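quick one before i forget lol
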Amino acid sequence: MKKILTVIRKEYLERVRAKSFLIGTLLGPALMSMFIVLPVLLADKGGDVERTVGVIDPSGLYFDSLIEVLVDRGDDNVSLKLIESPSGSTDDALATLKESILDETIHSGILISPDFLDSGRATFYNTSVSALVMRDEVLRPALNRVLREDRFAAAQVPDTLYSYLDARTVWSSIALTAEGEEQEQDEDVSIIMAIVLIMIIYLMVIMYGSHTLTAVIEEKSSRMVEVLLASISPGDLMLGKVMGIGLAGLTQFAIWSGAMFFMSQRGVSVGEFSLDTAFLTPVILINFIAFFLLGFFLYATLYAGIGAMCNTVQDSQQFHTPLLMGLVIPMMMLSLVMRAPDSTVAVVLSLVPLFSPVLMFMRVCVETPPMWQIALSWALMLVSIWLAARMAGKLFRMGILMYGASPTWATLFKVLRS
């Protein structure tokens, strides 16, 4: 045990004293905010580029109404320009519209059908797919409102009745605690905080798992491992490395958590997003730590075994990429879990040990699943870690002193069968 603690201390101090650890600790939150908060801010500011849209309105009834609706909706980034022909011909006006779009005088154009009140038809002209976003988010809702208002006016519906029929519901969300108490809920903050925590698990498992891989390969290539194996068994050496690097990851997480808590107490906000540690309920916090530790030990153990078989980092890439997909695939399935956290597909996938750190934790954040499912995912991950440790231990014992030819999948399976 003393020898294992010595290895743990060595691996831990090597990492926390390195400049990369300090840089990563300082820049880690900034990088995560760039991936998470920045898109939110850009989504709010992304429409600031003003675009001019040409409008052909043969009936002359809808252009002014469309301008009023855009102003009322606050869509100031879109300005309308009436396209007319001296001859009064719609075909001539359409030719002028197309020419203006092609020479980039205007961004895009709309041809409102003369019988728009009855048919509701409008044609959109553009040169890029990106214009369709503006059409669907700005122009379509505005023109729908113009059509609706004009049809009500044509049917002589009183303004009071129109206002009554056009009413919209006003929503607020109340979350119920396990004790039945009511708690006001901010869905946007909850989702963003959940994604932040998942990104921490994702990035740190990959980063510190890769550290385990490179640490084993570096000591093997420098022949330092031969000296270490003279006083410690391969299994104890692997365990010490995994635990030492894992403690370094926990230290970094503790620093980030302390900084996040401090900023939340000071009311720090980015745009409309404010840090809210109230989201970190005991259930979420316990599961976060558990899935981080279980995920790290599962992947780090596999990485250590692979590293023992490889002579260079380049040799490990053929094994590294398939293993990495165990974290990439669940990240691609997050939207599925967010929409239906209790669906059969979400439940089954979240119980897969390689996927559990991401998918099961997302289920915990979105809608806490039954405790037996959480406990089952922990148990399956512990069994997987035990099996991975046995497999990695064999790879470590057999491969740590293997030099020469680059390993292949056939070599890997041969060692495991031996």
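fyi The longest helix spans residues 187-221.
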